[in-house]
């Protein structure tokens, strides 16, 4: 069964802006939270945003970064981007990324 978010994340009201992603359990540094965007030129902005990418808010002191997926055989980037925890994230903490470093159309 498809689940739009991992079990350790939920969407709720954010003090930053509108809705946001929040940890429902401790998330360890280095955890791959999942795919946030998929490049696809058939769409207006050139990408499909998943629920993970659609609800993550900006912070100047983020706890995740956007990272391109890499094919392990060719070592080339492929058109999916993941959110990776750059530090331990406590239960109840909002998941944030720095938007200025988040140009989905750049690799």
TrEMBL record:
UniProt cross-references to InterPro entries, sorted A to Z: SET_dom (IPR001214), SET_dom_sf (IPR046341)
Domain SET: 7-100
Pfam family of the protein (one): SET
PROSITE patterns tied to this protein: SET
SUPFAM superfamilies in UniProt: SET domain
Protein name: SET domain-containing protein
Taxonomy of the source species: unclassified sequences, metagenomes, ecological metagenomes
């Amino acid at each position: 069964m498809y689940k739009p978010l991992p079990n350790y994340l939920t969407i709720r009201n954010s003090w930053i802006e509108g809705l946001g992603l929040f940890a429902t359990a401790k998330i360890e540094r280095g955890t791959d939270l999942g795919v946030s965007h998929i490049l696809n030129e058939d769409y207006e902005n050139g990408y499909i945003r998943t629920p993970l990418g659609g609800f993550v808010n900006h912070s100047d002191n983020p706890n995740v970064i956007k990272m391109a997926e890499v094919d392990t055989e060719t070592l080339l980037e492929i058109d999916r981007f993941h959110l990776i925890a750059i530090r331990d994230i406590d239960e109840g903490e909002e998941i944030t990324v720095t938007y200025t470093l988040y140009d989905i159309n750049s690799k």
